[in-house]
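notes to self, project folder thing:

trying the whole complex as one job this time. last attempt i did each chain seperately and stitching them together was a nightmare. three parts in total, labels are on each line so i dont mix them up again. if this works i'll redo the older ones the same way
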Amino acid sequence: MRQQYHQSERFTPDKEMQACGLFGVMDTTGKRFGGDMAIKAIKNMKVRGNGLGGGFGVYGIYPDYQEYYAFHVMYQDRNQAAKRMVEEYLKQNFYVIYDEEIPTDPGVNVFQPPLVWRYFVSPPPRKKGAEEHLTDDEYVVNKVMFVNINIEDAYVFSSGKNVGVFKGVGFPEEVAAYFMLDKLYQGYLWTVHSRFPTNTPGWWGGAHPFGILDWTVVHNGEISSYGTNRRFLAMHDYYCTLYTDTEVVAYAVDLLMRKQGLPIEVLSKIFAPPLWDAIKLMSAKEQKLYTTLRMVYAPLMLNGPFTIIVSHHNEMIGLTDRIRLRPITAGAKGDLVFLSSEEGAIRAVCPDLDMVWTPPGGEPVIVRLNSKDHLLSTNKSI
Amino acid sequence: MQIKFGYRDNFLYEIRPTGVLCSECMSIDADKAVIEARDLKHKEVNDLCREAVLSGVSKITINNVFGQRYIGTRLYNPTGQHKVTITINNFPGNDLGIFLDGHRIIVNGNAQDGVGNTMNEGEIIVHGRAGDVAAMAMRGGKIFVRDNVGYRAAIHMKEYRDKLPVLVIGGTAQDFMGEYLAGGVVIMLGLGLKENEPHRANYIGTGMHGGVIYLRGHVEPHQLGKEVGVRELDDHDWQVLQTHVYEYCQHFSKDPAEILSSKFIKLLPVSKRPYGNIYAY
Amino acid sequence: MYSFQLPEFMIERAADRCIRCRVCERQCANQVYSYDAELDRMFIEEKNCVGCQRCVVLCPTLALNVRPRTSDYRPNASWTRDKMQNLKKQAETGGVILTGSGNDKPYRIYWDHLVLNASQVTNPSIDPLREPMELKTYLGRKPDAVKITRCADGFDVETESFPNVAIPTPLVFSAMSYGAISYPAYLSLAAAAKELGTLFNTGEGGLPEHMRREFGGNAIVQCASGRFGVDADYLNNSQIVEIKIGQGAKPGIGGHLPGEKVLANISETRMIPIGTDALSPAPQHDIYSIEDLSMLIYALKEATNYAKPVSVKIAAVHNVAAIASGIVRAGADIVAIDGFRGGTGAAPQATRDNVGIPLELALAAVDKRLREEGIRNKCSIMAAGGIRCSADAIKAIALGADGVYVGTAALIAMGCTLCQKCYTGKCNWGITTQDPFLIKRLNPELTTQRLVNLMRAWSHEIQEMLGGMGINAIESLRGNRDHLRGIGLEDWELNVLGVKGAGE
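result (full assembly):
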């Protein structure tokens, strides 16, 4: 698979550049709530998108199926042949517990919607052959990569347990109306993205959030180190197929946190490491840490303007690039914690916040279930 | 992917006619106008503002502002105009008062990015914090921010002859404050900082080749850009400082004597042509 | 026998400008000029002229004009003047034709067909004068992952790093041995490297003892096939130890220092008798296969207590990707690839002009192969061989190099005019000679200043171009082919380079 994929770098597809709006909200007690806040906030930032992409990543939406991996699969152009191939593949490699089309509102008008289907699957307890010793997560990643690369017109939007990604072409509120997000789903963590694509308008797969397992990423900005990041990830068997630079963030997070077991604070220091000038002034121990990270993970540094909100179960992290070329604001009220591109959007859904703060570039805001860790980022913020 | 997608207008879609808006969202009473901005789009709020100014009011209050942009911008009238005061409750969006030419804006809340962007004349008073690139390319007028500001405040602020812009920040700033400063006065008071806590900004005044920054509190030498020199204030400086600090205190009810009794330093550019000798001619 | 060769250069002297100051006579080591006091005239012996332009530059009235003599034979696309002259020379001497510096034939230069990106609208370009722009590079092997444990006040790094060398800019001085170049030139390279914080390479001529304490901290020491001057003290007074397998200018052949150039100092540094030819064997005689290389690499690591990265320098030849992969698996921390434009003090012209492949293609192939095998992080790649300007350097980094060796460009900064006569020992600029009269012409202080200026200017230009691409740290450009496009290249070339055509 690796050798066939690209005979030359010359044939790798062009990547997307985007300016966008982001929003994330989490209830730190794990209480689930509907999509109204997310939809209202992203609608407030309508001018940050251009109506050609929007998406939601929601956690906690399948409480009845929470032990099963929920695959949201998109079939471009409603290609039935692709659907048959994917279903055949899933039958061979998983136990498919239940599957259905993701319910959509027929009255809502969106551009050329593809067929989006969800499957609740479980990997076999004893895997065959060379994959015998793989963990469930690893197994799922391999199979998802296979579908994305090899089955034409089929793309897996999300593949985690008890999490779903809903995205498409249109303003995010249109996507929300199409998938009836405010009516049908309740989650404890909602992330939303409004897209302003310049390269591949109208491709449903290109919208954010980007997901692999239960990681979802929404991203604002352009990663100018994309070529470097992508080639490093290819060395670790992650292949970027979705024509968008956010993919590298999702795969890098999976590699560093799941496979290599690094904590989230270290992750943010790999994506947005401190400048050498600043490292020179730190304590010996910190110097050793940051110098080692910069040396070893240099190809995973994200250069160029970015704000990302990375989420997985129990955590939501917001991070900007180290010279803060893109904005981020965090807000908190009671148990709810918000992250957004603009403060106005947070205020539109919650006018009387307890606190509002903006961390400096390269400092993450980490929102964790059942903790007040998000307040740790306030000490260097304004 | 070969499908052609038309243009989707994210800014001008479904703008209601001004007549309808006036009757529904604005009420004018003698020389005061009150605009109800909840759920209004950016252009609609500014349409109403302009209507209000053209109808001769001198005070406008906009309520329930949540992120609407460019407030105070479309009020330029070449045939001479009276100046209005706009009070915003509570959270204006980006580019507040961009290209502002003489009016006064008061914000009872936090402002976002681009406050007073390329402002020519007028005043902006923020009872809260401002975001990134506040006072960018500002050429005249005054901006007072009660709390902190974000990155790149006063970037490329300029002065010319008798036009002298002023930015007074009550709290502290984040990195690249005063980047490319070409003129004007920036005063940073650091009121939220603890005793002996240095300001947190790095690369202060990098690329500075004009203007002056008065800093209350403490910065380390490594926080300053290489074009910046640190000096003591002379009498003229104290006069300028006092005038603006008094004005700041008036707006935000603080004690000027207490503020002025602390240590101030002056940051100046070391050369007018800091990059003259890096090129080979 | 009487020579049938035509003179290579013609010299014109403007009679009304010449003031008979005789500077040209004193400066020319090839004895082209002579003065007749009785006639008060300068006489010219053109056959000796090598075209080094020293007399032209130093003539106070700019009275001289030295130009290549245009082909006097009837124009012939196949039997060019060069070919015919070489034939006649070989007929007269029966010898191998020697030459110096790098390949001068018109093979395609890929640097001139690659263009860089700049950010607009979707990504701001960054201003290196005001915002931070980081060129710091670490050379050496990197671990696959870092194991981190939380502790009371932060994080502890558990993984032991391999030895790495930090340089503030990705530009490093290339290997030019003491013996091939003069002492002032060698000293200037070392002093410039020290002042800039970067590295210089001792070449196969060793590092004189009195320089080791002062300059060892900036030295890459070479362990070449001749093993000249290689002892434990030499190896430990360095930052990197480099095994020289080959050299771009003469792949497959060892170094050659003619006996005329082996005077007292050289003899002491290389630890060979005065006047003997310093011949490096073609292969290293304890490396006949890749497992032997592995043996030598670990021997050097033992000798330096595993404290220094070991680099292997190879010439760019046809299966360079496979060779590089083997070298990395043999334990090398750095792979240096020398393309066929690399310079030399002396090489047979036939080898120099016909053996080897361009650096650009080799670099792209090696980077791609190492990534495909998943071992790219196990080594740093240094690119050498005809880097003429900072744009070439930055394109090399975009193709995958960690750092770039600067050789011929450094010599030109010192005064060299590429007359290709380094092997005669009569370098008029005092660079590639050991003649005590000639080396006095090179002032180490001024020369150091020239080299420092060059590197600073290039580093600054690299920063400007990086900023234009919207990148503020060089590690984000390494291997990032997306920022390159090709113009005027054929399909297969674009495929090998891994670069799209402009507009694609």
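what i see at first glance: The radius of gyration of chain B is 21 Å.
need to look closer tmrw
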